[in-house]
Amino acid sequence: MTIQAQSLLNNLDDRSSLQRSNVDGCCLTWRAWGSQNIDRRPLVLLHGGFGAWNHWVRNIPVLEKDFNVLAVDLPGCGDSSDPPKPYTAKSLADIVSCSLDEVLGQDVPFDLIAFSFGGFLSGLIAHSQKRRINSVTLIGSPILGLTGDGPANDLIEVPKDLSESEKKPMYLHNLRQLMVHKPESADELALTIHIENMAKARLRSRGIARTLVLADSLKNLPCSLHCLFGEQDRTLYPDLDGIEKYVRDIHPGASFEIVEGAGHWVQFEAPKRVNAILSRILTENSF
Q1: pTM as predicted
Q2: Which of 15, 44, 107, 153 fits a 20 to 30 Å CA distance from 237?
Q3: What is the mean pLDDT of residues 226-246?
């Protein structure tokens, strides 16, 4: 962990406007940027499993120039509290949806961008918010379910009783194995984010990610759908083509973008390309 990486995260966090909401005893923490764009339709960001708002560290500074951006820490992640147990994709989505009603108000239209596990909640949220959701953009979400084999599962379990110096190479291995394609993309900023998020993560999301809840919830989606994947995303093993075919079959008007040379955490590894795609999607789908 470098001082420079931590300083970048702290500065972005300090610039945010903090909001909290309580839904059935689960307190969600929201951060907002781009207050000068308060008259524009809000852009809601959902992070990936074992993550937090900082999954968007290389996107928020660009998006906040033109949009009112809100990023939540999902239940059991980051600075949000744990959801009631037992939890399901539906119960987690309901918490986030109710929290949106509190944070945004019940009549404000919004766009939703969801990364990885956040995508498994996005379709359910879209249906519950059908009166006002404008678009859903999925980034790196294994729509047909995360498989139990393949390289995305070859991770090292990091014992809690190890020192930080002993844990660091293990976290680095997992980061390179799961999240990025190029080894150098697992830089000090990525490692700082990963270590911080793993220390706070309590939600066990992989059981939900192995289901077809996202695939099913994308049927009859009440808004436009957009998909964005890194070409080398290991969570999509074995077949990105199958995912595209499924999306085309159920939602012929959906856009489907593949970013070459990038892995699962594509918005971090290829931020310029992803930020340009997101800006285009949001501009073309404005009303």
Answers
A1: 0.97
A2: 44
A3: 94
- Quote the tokens at residue 43: 């852009």
Q: Contact at 8 Å (CB) between 68 and 42?
A: yes
User: How many alpha carbons fall within 13 Å on the CB side of residue 76?
Assistant: 20
State both tokens at 267.
């918005």
Task: Provide the CATH number for the domain around residue 242.
Answer: 3.40.50.1820
Helix, coil or strand: residue 222: coil
Q: Which two tokens stand for residue 204?
A: 């066990």
CA dist 67 and 33 (Å) reads 8
Task: Count the Cβ atoms, other than its own, within 10 Å of residue 147.
Answer: 16
Tally of structural domains, the chain: 1
Name the token pair of 15: 């610039």
Residue 175: DSSP 8-state: I
* Token code pair at residue 124: 């359910």
Print the domain residue range for 68.
3-284
- The arithmetic mean of pLDDT across residues 230-235, rounded, is 96
Residues facing 125 on adjacent strands = none
8 A C-beta contact, residue 93 and residue 124: yes
For tokens 């744990």, name the residue: 82
Q: Please report where in the chains the tokens 């290389």 appear, as a residue.
A: 58
End-to-end CA distance of the chain: 43
**Residue tagged 């984010």 (tokens):** 193
